[in-house]
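Database export, one record per block. Field names are fixed; values are copied verbatim from the stored entry.
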Amino acid sequence: MIEIKNLTKDYIGFSGVWDRLLSSISFGFLGGKVRFRALQDINFICKKSEIVGIIGQNGAGKSTLLKILTGVSKPSSGSIDIQGTIRSILELGVGFNPELSGEENVYYNGLVWGFRLEEIQEVTNRVFEFSNLVDFRKVPIKNYSSGMIMRLGFALATATVPEVLIVDEALAVGDAIFQQKSLEKFKEFKAAGTATLIVSHDLTLLAQICDRIILLHKGRLIYDGLPQLAIQEYMKHIADTSWQDKKENAESTQAPIQFHYSLKKNEQINPSLVFVGDLVELEINYVLKQNIPQLTIGMHIDHSNGIRVYGTNTYQNDILLNDLEPFKEYKIRFQFPINLAPGKYSIGLSMHQGDNHTTNCYFWGEGLHSFEVERVGLAKFTGITYLPIRIIP
């Protein structure tokens, strides 16, 4: 278990040469006038058999938090309680000697990571079998590809079940087959009672395996909850920070764009139930409240488990909305079939400049309309999408 209370981390800088000199001769009691707060009052718990993800933009404090948890850095204040043996996967392959063989690297790195000699002898075969490198165990690491090194590092790091596991951007490595094996390994650890903390930018994978996701922003914890809601909050935060004059209410007269939307299925408006294969239309009526030289309007569909099923926008489809007249009403429609598996989904909208919402985002909305998809008159299928396939005997 990991329990963090009121964790704060400050980094000290110097305003100039004399400030640095003063700090040196006073053993740090004086000088160091420049201070940067990387983390502030962080509180959360990661319990046994729980997988917690951590997301946030660059500079949010994710790496600083991991350094503190793994003992690389010390907090300025607050407390950390880690119960059980801790293992970290921060940079796969770091510490491998290129002149030594894969087997020799497993031996020496295993000792460095705290494995007992008997454990190393016991897990060596499993490491090479899991990483699909049985034929390369006697080959020097310098002859391995980068993917092979990452697979070997991951297999060694997960060779035994730790009580606490901390992972940084190594959620799934290698090809698709090995990625699936990696995810299954995390699920095995969860079943065995491991408390797992994962930092990653791969939101889809986090949504698949995490019980909770924590969102950091400028050193503060601003959300801790269900993966789907955390990802929605994260995307909204990116949109907000990309637009300097953002407004909280996109429908208000103060917003740069005023709009309303509706999902249509035949004569139905905003249906809560649709069927696989139905043709629907998302209509957006909008008015610009100021001059916007280039506008992109996008839509996306999310599954209830947080996975983004599909997303597109006018820019990506070469529909240019340039130099539109302010205070004039415009309309745009997205027509598409519901080629989705049965389940619950939601639609979101975005209005911004360029290809994506990281540049001048005027509006970002998640879960604006929810609907359920049912299968009627079609053969059973697996997966998250439906293909109108024909099987010819």
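Remark 1: The chain has eight helices and 19 strands.
Remark 2: The chain has a mean pLDDT of 86.
End of record.
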